[in-house]
Amino acid sequence: MTLKRQLVVNADDFGYTRDVNRGIVEAHQNGILTAATLMANGEAFDDAARLAHENPLLDVGCHLVLVGGRSVSDPGRELPSSVPQLLAAIATRKILVREELAAQVRRILGAGISPTHLDTHKHTHLAPPVLDVVAGIAEEFHISWVRRPFDLPLTAARARASWLTRATSDGLQLVRARFQHVLAAHQCRTTDHFAGFQITGRFRTAELVELIKALPEGTTEFMCHPGRCTDELRAARTRLKESREWELEALTASETRRALEDNDVALVNYRTLSRAV
């Protein structure tokens, strides 16, 4: 019998640091993680590429980066450090978005990895000029799936989110119609639903079980950020540090696996979904 609810569990930031990479692989080998998106400009890119080849069942995509770290198209240059700086750089053509993102995809391809899906660091493809490029990149490189980062309206998740996160999530709905139109024009595919934005850095096993129970029919991508938090991650410029350990624990908990079984939710990845068509 075909299950009506399917879940892609995707870890962002593959390649960020070696301890993040280690946590992602643990969540895949010992838990419910089915996919990860790789940062071409990550400090631990080579380590992540090696781990991807050692774990062929882990579905790997591109985590396209326009904010933070070094450029791939111009390695001597730093990328903007915030979304407002990125938008200003786009307006003044101080960053050539298409050249940068194409270079990132080519680096991943050059590592022998065939990416199945795309998303962006800090969800920058919600900005119209970035979305247009990302959709074009997806079509050019024949990468069918692009993340739709519009969070499910889950009451429990919303209650735990900060007011700023809730306001941001609500504001994203304003660009939803154009977002879907642009992706459709480039033959890009998305899951039916998305979850994880409002609980990033704030969930443990109980919250993940609640989310699984509340999943609607269709396919949902759940975004997560597991990892091990050692001195390497602590020295990095990210707010997500100890919370990566909490997420890893939730993704590998027996209660989480049991919730999937009890609620007839099937774990899938983007390769599974592509073959189903």
Describe the structure.
The chain has 277 residues and is an alpha/beta fold. It has one domain (5-276): Glycoside hydrolase/deacetylase (TIM Barrel), CATH 3.20.20.370. Helix content is 45%, strand content 14%. It contains 13 helices and eight strands. Strands 1, 2, 3, 4, 5, 6, 7 and 8 form an eight-stranded parallel sheet that branches. Helix 9 links the parallel strand 6 and strand 7. Helix 9 (205-214) packs parallel to helix 12. 44% of the residues are buried. The model has no long low-confidence stretch (mean pLDDT 91).
Q: Which percent range fits the helix content?
A: 40-55%
CATH superfamily: Glycoside hydrolase/deacetylase
CATH fold label: TIM Barrel
Low-confidence runs: none
What is Rg?
17 Å
- What's the N-to-C terminus distance? 16 Å
CATH architecture: Alpha-Beta Barrel
Write the H/E string, N to C.
Answer: EHEHEHHEHEHHHEHEHHHEH
Mean pLDDT: 91
Which CATH first-tier class would you pick? Alpha Beta
Q: What coarse outline follows from CA principal-axis ratios?
A: globular
Main sheet attributes: strand count, strand direction, barrel closure: 8 strands, parallel
The tally of structural domains comes to 1
